[in-house]
Amino acid sequence: MKFAKRVATSLGYVVLAAALVSVLAPKATHAIVATLVQVANTSANPVPTSDVNNPDRATILILSCQGLSQGSAGFLDCNPDTTVPAGQRFVINRVEADCFTHPGSTFGNAHIAFTEGGNETRHVLPLNSLETGFSPEYVLSQGVDYHADAGSYISFEAYTSDTEGGTNCTFQADGYLVNYP
Asked: What is the 8-class DSSP label of residue 46?
């Protein structure tokens, strides 16, 4: 019984001394603990890391759709029917378009639109006219830096003066998904 009492008393003194040291000298206590738990990232002992938002490791996403005019001048819509998944952000780094219309018809006011929560944001896509010798062709291949948050709906539109019908446009947005809180 005396031995147990001595051990308990000695242990109590050690705990009391540690508490006093941590209250009276917190920096010294912190330094002692820091030396016990120290991670060094050196070339001899590297710490493994992973960049989860690296485009080389991210999910590639290509949105593509085709729109066809219905015989009246106006906007030609093209909707890929895709929304950005929850917890993700779609980083778009290239937008492309290839449009054909009838001779005498024109194309213009093309844009990509992001709709989130009922709010739409548009970005103009400058189409370039090509003389192919057949029907007028309008093209675009442009590097961009657009970000669409989770739940965003992406669509394309362009205006055509074609009243015969048959104007055809293919749009594409290339990019990758990253995790986004």
From this structure: P
CB 80 within 8 A of CB 65: yes
Residue in the block written with tokens 């001394």: 17
Give the Å distances, CA to CA, from 163 to 51, 132, 159: 51, 21, 12
Q: Tell me the CB-side half-sphere exposure of residue 122, using CA atoms within 13 A.
A: 9
- For residue 19, which amino acid is it? A
CB 111 within 8 Å of CB 124? yes
Please give the full DSSP string across 102-158, using - where no structure is assigned.
-TT--EEEEEEEEEETTEEEEEE---EEE--SSS-EEEEEEEEEEEEETT-EEEEEE
59-179, what's its fold?
Answer: Immunoglobulin-like (2.60.40)
Give the tens place of pLDDT for each residue, 65-115. 888 777 677 778 888 888 899 998 999 999 999 988 888 888 878 899 999
- Give 2-28 pLDDT, tens digit per residue: 766 675 676 666 555 565 555 555 666
